[in-house]
Design a protein that fits this description.
The protein has 94 residues and is α+β, with helices and mostly antiparallel strands. It contains two helices and four strands. Strands 1-2-3-4 form a four-stranded antiparallel β-sheet. The radius of gyration is 16 Å and the shape is globular.
């Protein structure tokens, strides 16, 4: 019984992480800021990249891709006016 409960807990935890990643993958060019916030929530920060306003998000990696020094990926959603122009995972310089 304890094994079953533990297995269920792990499955639900992994499903939660996958759900967060799927949400960021649903961002599309042309979406409004309000649609993006409704889909993935408030950004952790703002950045200015190539004269565009960009929202910065951290998304926790799935269980199998985590390492002690890298538990999440950083994403940027950049806007032209009020619509998504570009988006994607940022590449770390390290």
């Amino acid at each position: 019984m304890k094994r079953c409960a533990f297995g269920l807990l792990i499955a639900l935890s992994l499903a939660g992480c996958a759900g967060e990643r799927r949400a960021i993958d649903q961002v599309q060019t042309g979406m409004s800021r309000e649609q993006v916030v409704g889909l993935i929530g408030q950004p952790e920060g703002q950045a200015r990249v190539n004269d565009r306003d960009c929202a910065v998000y951290s998304v926790q990696k799935d269980f199998w891709r985590r390492t002690p020094w890298s538990m999440s990926d950083q994403y940027q959603v950049c806007y032209a006016g009020n619509q998504v122009e570009t988006f994607g995972r940022t590449v770390s310089g390290s």
